[in-house]
Amino acid sequence: MSGEHSTYTPTSGLERWVDSRLPLPRLLHDSFVAYPVPRNLNYAYTFGAMLSVMLLVQIVSGVVLAMHYAAETTVAFNSVEKIMRDVNHGWLLRYMHANGASFFFIAVYLHIARGLYYGSYKAPREILWILGVVIYLLMMATGFMGYVLPWGQMSFWGATVITGFFSAFPLVGEWIQQFLLGGFAVDNPTLNRFFALHYLLPFMIAGVVVLHIWALHVTGQTNPTGVEVKTKTDTVPFTPYATLKDALGVSVFLIVFAWFIFYMPNYLGHPDNYIPANSLKTPAHIVPEWYYLPFYAMLRAITFNVGPIDSKLGGVLVMFGAIIILFFLPWLDTSKVRSAVYRPLYKLFFWLFVANAILLGWLGSRPAEGVYVILSQLGTLYYFGFFLVVMPVLGFVEKPKRIPNSITEAVLQKRPGGTPAAL
Amino acid sequence: MMKHVLSGLLSAAFLTLATDTVLAQENAPAPAASHDAAAPAGEHAGAEGEAHGGTPHFPIKKPAQMSWSFAGPFGHYDKAQLQRGLKVYTEVCSACHSMNLVAFRTLRGLGYSEAQVKAFAANYEVQDGPNAEGEMYTRKALPSDHFPSPFANAEAAAAANNGAAPPDMSLLAKARGIERGFPTFVFDIFTQYQEGGPDYIHALLTGYQEPPKGVEVAPGTHYNPYFANAAALAMAKPLNDGQVTYDDGAPATVDQYSRDVAAFLMWAAEPHLEERKRTGFMVMIFLVIFTGLIYLTKRAVYAAKDH
């Protein structure tokens, strides 16, 4: 979009009238119709569309749920059950919203993995990437606070454990924890502020999403070759090409989403959350939602003290560090080559990273004992090693494959019998 | 891309599989290897598990997977079974367990007529008020009332039951469930397994037995290898053969009672299950056709693209 002339031509009198006053239709046309995208985008590039859809689903279902929900410890649990039993299609709204959170995270993890694989964070897209990490952080906060609202056992104890992390920080820790809770323990003030914030944060996410898409449209999308767009033959207009590909991706994604909503709505949840919160009865295993499990595993992997840092603070630092490190990714990767397609070694380490993340997720759901602890420690080591050692070093030692001169060349090479002459 | 995703998932699966095997070997004599549900209970009971290292793992035995009419994409409640389950709940469970989220009016879902529901509700007394004189009073329950609790409050329930209040049963079928473990939890996505609660309830109710030799249970508790949190639980064996009289010819056995009450509790926890699955089927058909149309459109548009 940057530097390109707008191709929007108002056809009716009304359109011309609007265009000369607030050219919003022009903005939309230039952003989602005429906007040129690389011609070789594959389905890994459709997760952004899924995420937009999920944000909308969550906001719409959430607003309606909020009309029936009561954020007060003595009635919160039953108000959710009222939604499930007596509100028209309340069961659908609530299952959609609860599973929607999970599918939001499934999409975001695939989106992040796509970015890692194709080097989407490299110059000039650093700000685009950082905004993405900000969205991810906001999502985590929103998801966590949303899980507290039904006021079940896992809501209560999850909130207790996670806000407890902050007390690990020296000097200010206790103060931060009490500030978050609105008291000395998770109680009514906590529930109230979590509800307020859970309602607020999605709109902040929507705001950062606008910036994210703005930054995307300034730099243009990456593509599987990692070679920047050079000529017009390298691109196709967003509509109908990317629109249809996105629509197909979203539609398949919705089938899987519907499978969970209608046939196994409680698969991703924990049975204990159907037991009302009880501050006197600790569940046998306090397990966070699945999307936090890799970080939970890393938190618990730190079972030893390092100098003045005790194991608790160490674990908390490692857990927060695991996310903070993502902000520095554009400068940790020293390779000039963007796409993993032309980086044989990076490709290997990338898939190991994915496997390691899944393994850490599984370990996060296990009790912290025996061999699980050792495996978590190895997993944590690889997680940080990937960013702090593999990424910087590979740029110097790896011998990349030959990179095509242009996107068009790469596309034509892939085609059977295709030669540049076919142009 | 798809190929990469698959190979990534596969390698992850192998990794976890490998670690699983290691674990199973390491903990062979301890209940941690809960994968082998068939192993004799005697070797697995409480004390030994604790001695072996760290936390003891419960339940000692995993619940058997039963066949339920409400399982799967076309699942529906068996109304006769729900009515029998209601009878078991009313005559046995309700002596100690409340079910305070369930309103009498919803019993229409069990196939009862409005008059039958009214008559059923009238069997119960509920407290109401205050009246114009400011007095609380009791009256016969109406269909709009919920099942009244057997105890005045949680403290009274606890005091009458060795200090632990019997759990409310409204959501029990969704609030229980034994972890399935890897790789079963992966297969569950494809088989739509969501019946962990009823399976657990059935297993627990039919699982009471004499403790194996050498296993001591605390006084006031009852050995049951299916109990989720320990080797024995406070509730004594609640059901015995012939205890509840069925009028539809179903066998008067503990197994049958347990199935019926588990199915009833699933209904109590998820009264809209049938509607959900029916709606789901329509949504699925719509989405599949919709996806097919988008696919065809996309293919046509891309085929027409100049090279």
From TrEMBL, chain A:
<comment type="similarity">
    <text>Belongs to the cytochrome b family.</text>
</comment>
<feature type="domain" description="Cytochrome b/b6 C-terminal region profile">
    <location>
        <begin position="228"/>
        <end position="405"/>
    </location>
</feature>
<keyword id="KW-0472">Membrane</keyword>
<protein>
    <recommendedName>
        <fullName>Cytochrome b</fullName>
    </recommendedName>
</protein>
<keyword id="KW-0408">Iron</keyword>
<feature type="binding site" description="axial binding residue">
    <location>
        <position position="111"/>
    </location>
    <ligand>
        <name>heme b b566</name>
    </ligand>
</feature>
<feature type="transmembrane region" description="Helical">
    <location>
        <begin position="92"/>
        <end position="112"/>
    </location>
</feature>
<dbReference type="InterPro" id="IPR036150">
    <property type="entry name" value="Cyt_b/b6_C_sf"/>
</dbReference>
<keyword id="KW-1133">Transmembrane helix</keyword>
<dbReference type="GO" id="GO:0045275">
    <property type="term" value="C:respiratory chain complex III"/>
</dbReference>
<comment type="subunit">
    <text>The main subunits of complex b-c1 are: cytochrome b, cytochrome c1 and the Rieske protein.</text>
</comment>
<keyword id="KW-0812">Transmembrane</keyword>
<dbReference type="InterPro" id="IPR048260">
    <property type="entry name" value="Cytochrome_b_C_euk/bac"/>
</dbReference>
<keyword id="KW-0679">Respiratory chain</keyword>
<feature type="transmembrane region" description="Helical">
    <location>
        <begin position="247"/>
        <end position="264"/>
    </location>
</feature>
<dbReference type="InterPro" id="IPR030689">
    <property type="entry name" value="Cytochrome_b"/>
</dbReference>
<dbReference type="InterPro" id="IPR005798">
    <property type="entry name" value="Cyt_b/b6_C"/>
</dbReference>
<feature type="transmembrane region" description="Helical">
    <location>
        <begin position="156"/>
        <end position="176"/>
    </location>
</feature>
<keyword id="KW-0479">Metal-binding</keyword>
<dbReference type="InterPro" id="IPR005797">
    <property type="entry name" value="Cyt_b/b6_N"/>
</dbReference>
<feature type="domain" description="Cytochrome b/b6 N-terminal region profile">
    <location>
        <begin position="14"/>
        <end position="225"/>
    </location>
</feature>
<keyword id="KW-0249">Electron transport</keyword>
<dbReference type="Pfam" id="PF00032">
    <property type="entry name" value="Cytochrom_B_C"/>
</dbReference>
<feature type="transmembrane region" description="Helical">
    <location>
        <begin position="196"/>
        <end position="216"/>
    </location>
</feature>
<feature type="transmembrane region" description="Helical">
    <location>
        <begin position="43"/>
        <end position="71"/>
    </location>
</feature>
<dbReference type="GO" id="GO:0022904">
    <property type="term" value="P:respiratory electron transport chain"/>
</dbReference>
<feature type="binding site">
    <location>
        <position position="217"/>
    </location>
    <ligand>
        <name>a ubiquinone</name>
    </ligand>
</feature>
<feature type="binding site" description="axial binding residue">
    <location>
        <position position="97"/>
    </location>
    <ligand>
        <name>heme b b562</name>
    </ligand>
</feature>
<feature type="binding site" description="axial binding residue">
    <location>
        <position position="198"/>
    </location>
    <ligand>
        <name>heme b b562</name>
    </ligand>
</feature>
<feature type="transmembrane region" description="Helical">
    <location>
        <begin position="313"/>
        <end position="332"/>
    </location>
</feature>
<dbReference type="GO" id="GO:0046872">
    <property type="term" value="F:metal ion binding"/>
</dbReference>
<comment type="function">
    <text>Component of the ubiquinol-cytochrome c reductase complex (complex III or cytochrome b-c1 complex), which is a respiratory chain that generates an electrochemical potential coupled to ATP synthesis.</text>
</comment>
<dbReference type="InterPro" id="IPR027387">
    <property type="entry name" value="Cytb/b6-like_sf"/>
</dbReference>
<feature type="transmembrane region" description="Helical">
    <location>
        <begin position="344"/>
        <end position="364"/>
    </location>
</feature>
<dbReference type="Pfam" id="PF00033">
    <property type="entry name" value="Cytochrome_B"/>
</dbReference>
<feature type="transmembrane region" description="Helical">
    <location>
        <begin position="370"/>
        <end position="397"/>
    </location>
</feature>
<dbReference type="GO" id="GO:0016491">
    <property type="term" value="F:oxidoreductase activity"/>
</dbReference>
<keyword id="KW-0813">Transport</keyword>
<feature type="transmembrane region" description="Helical">
    <location>
        <begin position="127"/>
        <end position="149"/>
    </location>
</feature>
<keyword id="KW-0349">Heme</keyword>
<dbReference type="GO" id="GO:0008121">
    <property type="term" value="F:quinol-cytochrome-c reductase activity"/>
</dbReference>
<dbReference type="InterPro" id="IPR016174">
    <property type="entry name" value="Di-haem_cyt_TM"/>
</dbReference>
